[in-house]
Design brief:
Blueprint: E1 3-6, E2 17-20, H1 27-33, E3 52-57, H2 67-73, E4 83-85, E5 96-99
Parallel strand pairs: 1-5
Antiparallel strand pairs: 1-2, 3-4, 3-5
Length: about 110
């Protein structure tokens, strides 16, 4: 079972975390299943960029992004070459290290 190391984020995961993920789950699903409330305004439909993450380690183990995801990523805050929409990046067998960017484009987010 692969491990996802989440780097510290002041709001979503202040101390960072190491979680076990199921192969075949998206990064977003894995984070949410472990209480890391990453934004996902479109309910993981690949229609926004609020679940944007930067894959610091293990990027090459993920399937290549589809064109739709790449087009959306162009609008993400803090875009980097290893950026992915966590709702579209499916966990394989390799361990991952991800960073949730400090900001997203979702300016009108509601607290849950």
């Amino acid at each position: 079972m692969p491990t996802i190391q989440v780097l510290p984020h002041p709001e979503h995961c202040p101390d960072g975390a190491r979680i076990q993920a199921q192969v075949g789950d998206s990064i977003c699903e894995a984070l949410l299943a472990h209480g890391i409330e990453i934004e996902h305004a479109c309910d993981m439909a690949c229609a926004c960029t609020t679940c944007h993450v930067i894959v610091r380690q293990g990027y090459d183990s993920l399937a290549s992004p589809e064109e739709e995801e790449e087009d959306l990523l162009d609008r993400a805050w803090g875009l980097e070459p290893q950026s992915r929409l966590s709702c579209q990046a499916v966990v394989a067998r390799a361990d991952l290290t991800v960073e949730i960017p400090r900001y997203s484009i979702n300016h009108a987010r509601e607290k849950r």
